[in-house]
Automatic annotation (TrEMBL):
Primary enzyme class: transferase
Transmembrane segments: 77-101, 113-133, 251-273
GO MF terms, alphabetically ordered: protein-cysteine S-palmitoyltransferase activity
Domain named Palmitoyltransferase DHHC: residues: 154-285
Family the UniProt entry places it in: Belongs to the DHHC palmitoyltransferase family.
Reaction it catalyzes: L-cysteinyl-[protein] + hexadecanoyl-CoA = S-hexadecanoyl-L-cysteinyl-[protein] + CoA
Keywords: Acyltransferase, Membrane, Transferase, Transmembrane, Transmembrane helix
Record's protein name: Palmitoyltransferase
EC numbers, comma separated: 2.3.1.225
A GO-annotated cellular component: membrane
Coiled-coil residue windows: none
Topology versus the membrane: Multi-pass membrane protein
């Protein structure tokens, strides 16, 4: 009996030892697996900084890539809706001016003021419609997809093709754009070399038109607003339905035109500053970074496309003679911009600037 108990005790001790050994081996495998995952994570993290050209901007761009993809696709699909919205809002303002404001001007203003309003209003409307159509329908310009002798400054990471100077890739259009400024959803088109002037002219004349409507309808807006404030008095004022519609249309016109004038006016001033410096919106960001980099080396960065304020405007607007200020700036003109957007020469004046903005 004792021998059986001793044998059973020995077997239990052997089983417990084997169980403990198995647990230790399992714990060792778990610890080894965790160490492998930790080493792999450190390797992935270090790989982000392995390339000497990798910086914080590259890491942030990689992290925000899903957001960029979402915004690009939303902008691409809603571009047509934005264009439709511009047409509808502009048409509504023109309709209100013709139905509500113009009859009042014809009955209350002097002949000189009537002629001024008719001439300026229709000229401004013509310039808005012409430049918006040209900006939306004109191709911004694309570099050739085949091999050529055109000098390039880099290789596009998306297209895997050479990029000429001032060319950048548009993720919404999914191709490179010559002298790209930005992708405008209100045009459903990129703003580049061949339609940059149309875009700026549209912004300028639309701002002028909104300011004109806001100033011209200011007194009518005050009267209409005061009239609307009395709608809920007791007893209600004796306004007809036609007069109520007139009051609301004037308020809608003034609020919309004033808001657009402020927003679009700021954008127009920003682009006017960039044109004066010979830059695009993208080049403004690149040149500032390049300027800081050159300052750290004790050197000075100069933009090779900055010919001076007056010459920058002449090149941008395509003005070569004095008569062009009238025929190409103050009147609708479909003349092409200077150059082909592939190569850039120091025109129209010589310059010593040598640093190239890519």
């Amino acid at each position: 009996m004792k021998s059986r108990a001793h044998l059973f005790a020995s077997a239990m001790r052997l089983f417990v030892r084997c169980f403990r050994l198995g647990r230790r081996r399992g714990q060792n495998k778990l610890i080894r697996r965790l160490r492998e995952l930790w080493s792999y994570g450190r390797l992935c993290l270090k790989s982000l900084f392995y390339n000497s050209f990798t910086n914080s901007d590259t890491i942030i761009d990689s992290l925000f890539e899903p957001i960029y993809w979402l915004v690009d696709h939303i902008t691409r699909w809603f571009g047509v809706a934005f264009v439709f919205l511009v047409i509808v809002l502009t048409s509504s303002i023109v309709l209100i001016v013709y139905i509500c404001l113009l009859p009042l001007i014809l009955h209350t203003y002097s002949l000189a003021w009537i002629l001024w309003h008719i001439f300026y209003g229709h000229w401004n409307l013509l310039m808005i419609v012409f430049h918006y159509y040209k900006a939306a329908r004109t191709s911004p310009g694309y570099p050739p997809q085949i091999k050529s002798d055109i000098p390039s400054v880099s290789i596009c990471r998306k297209c895997i093709t050479p990029k000429p100077a001032r060319t950048h890739h548009c993720s919404i259009c999914n191709r490179c754009i010559l002298k790209m400024d930005h992708h405008c959803p209100w045009l459903n088109n990129c703003v580049g070399h061949f339609n940059h002037r149309y875009f700026f002219s549209f912004c300028l004349f639309m701002t002028m038109g909104c300011v004109y409507c806001s100033i011209s309808s200011r007194n009518m807006f005050i009267d209409a607003y005061n009239a609307v404030e009395t709608y809920y008095q007791t007893p209600p004022p004796p306004y007809t339905s036609k007069e109520r519609i007139f009051h609301k249309c004037v308020i809608y016109l003034w609020v919309l035109c004033s808001s657009v004038a402020l927003a679009l006016g700021g954008l127009t001033l920003w682009h006017a500053m960039l044109i004066s410096r010979g830059e695009t919106s993208i080049e403004r960001h690149i040149n500032r970074k390049e300027q800081h980099r050159m300052q750290k080396k004790g050197k000075t960065f100069r933009n090779p496309f900055n010919y001076g304020r007056l010459h920058n405007w002449k090149v941008f607007l395509g003005v070569e003679t004095r008569s062009h200020w009238l025929t190409r700036v103050l009147l609708p003109s479909g003349h092409p911009p200077y150059g082909d957007g592939l190569t850039w020469t120091h025109y129209p004046i010589s310059t010593r600037n040598t640093m190239l903005a890519i």
